[in-house]
Structure to design on (105 residues):
């Protein structure tokens, strides 16, 4: 069994969850915050059998849209450039983790 963790834009998370449900996958949505932009995003946690991981990633990638925005660099002094930089986010950042045990009591 694997645990799929997908960090994605809040606006894409509901459609992703709906499609996961439709295909019979269970998921948990956790409100999260990106360390760079400090803006809210969503982390979906999906426990799934190994052979279903590719299908789950397909659903995530079909629903996670790529977005870009300009971020003023004066709030990130470490970047040491003036003005603004264009930052691209998404569609989704996905981690696939081995599950040692899955227990429901
Ligand atoms: P944030 O950390 O807010 O990052 C938003 C976007 O800013 C990133 O998009 C990336 O394009 C850019 N970015 C991040 N750190 C940067 C830096 N030091 N310098 C320049 N640009 C930077 P994504 O890569 O699509 O990531 C979207 C969100 O996924 C991230 O939001 C974070 O919440 C999560 N994430 C991405 N990689 C991660 C990782 N290795 N571990 C944990 N969370 C991660």
């Amino acid at each position: 069994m694997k645990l799929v963790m997908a960090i994605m834009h809040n606006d894409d998370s509901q459609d992703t969850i709906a499609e996961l449900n439709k295909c019979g996958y269970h998921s948990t949505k956790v409100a999260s915050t990106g360390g760079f932009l400090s803006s809210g995003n969503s982390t979906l946690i999906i426990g799934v059998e190994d052979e279903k991981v590719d299908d789950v990633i397909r659903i995530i990638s079909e629903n996670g849209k790529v977005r870009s925005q300009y971020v003023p660099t004066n709030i990130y002094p470490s970047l040491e450039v003036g003005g603004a930089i264009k930052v691209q986010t998404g569609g989704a950042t996905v981690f696939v983790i081995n599950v040692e045990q899955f227990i429901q009591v």
Summary: The chain has two helices and six strands.
